[in-house]
Amino acid sequence: MSFTVAIDGPAAAGKGTISKAVAAHFGFAHLDTGLLYRAVGAKVLTGAEPIAAAEALMAEDLEADNLRTPEVAQAASKVAVIAEVRAALVAFQQTFARRAGGAVLDGRDIGTVICPDAEAKLFVTASAEVRAERRYLELAAKGHKDTREEVLADVKARDERDTNRAEAPLKAADNAILIDTSDLSIEDAVARAVAEIEARL
Ligand code: C5P
């Protein structure tokens, strides 16, 4: 039996943390779909052509250790506007979503485009300032030298591109449950997500 949890939202809203915790809680597999676009973006930064890179993408590319940088995030959001890039990544995500034993996928278009029939859909958001501060602290902890202003500009640029693109723009599915994490602790946000999914099992 399959059970799909779709978790969408803008950068650094807490999707990743919530998705990992929810997957661990229910024993579901987890796919961070941003990694697919980051892996394509990383290849483009080294000279690859985006559509060919997306079509040739392999599972081990998602484990490259350079995918969490701001440069790769920007490159990812640029390749993510290309319809053929998105199309090349659909089958992998849909197969993952329907694996036996349950799956959590987080991204921008999971509840709207990839898994419109997901059993549970969450849209996780927070103000741009709160999200930029979280991302700043995360990057600083990893030794990145980016300033608060640079991180906020990066978050806003990606929001703008992800929300306004023609192809699979970032938006909440009509039947998604909204979780605003601006004023929530991680524990409270996770508890809220777990309770909403529990109610749909
Ligand atoms: O989630 P993450 O920040 O890793 O995603 C990187 C970029 O990949 C996003 O800014 C977005 O442009 C793109 N993306 C997407 N659709 C998804 C996941 C990520 O367009 N499902």
TrEMBL record:
Q: Where in the cell is it found?
A: Cytoplasm
Among CDD domains, the record links this protein to: CMPK
Iron-sulfur among the record's keywords? Answer: no
Keyword RNA-binding tagged? no
* Domain annotation Cytidylate kinase: ranges: 5-52, 56-198
Tell me which Pfam families the record gives. Cytidylate_kin (PF02224)
Q: What is its EC number?
A: 2.7.4.25
InterPro entries per UniProt: Cytidylate_kin, Cytidylate_kinase_dom, P-loop_NTPase
SUPFAM superfamilies assigned to the protein according to its UniProt record, in alphabetical order: P-loop containing nucleoside triphosphate hydrolases
Recorded catalytic activity of this chain's protein: dCMP + ATP = dCDP + ADP; CMP + ATP = CDP + ADP
Q: What class of enzyme is it?
A: transferase
The GO molecular function terms of this record are: kinase activity
Query: Which annotated residues bind ATP?
Result: G9, P10, A11, A12, A13, G14, K15, G16, T17
Keyword line: ATP-binding, Cytoplasm, Kinase, Nucleotide-binding, Transferase
Protein family membership: Belongs to the cytidylate kinase family. Type 1 subfamily.
Protein name, as recorded: Cytidylate kinase
Organism expressing this protein natively: Cognatishimia coralii
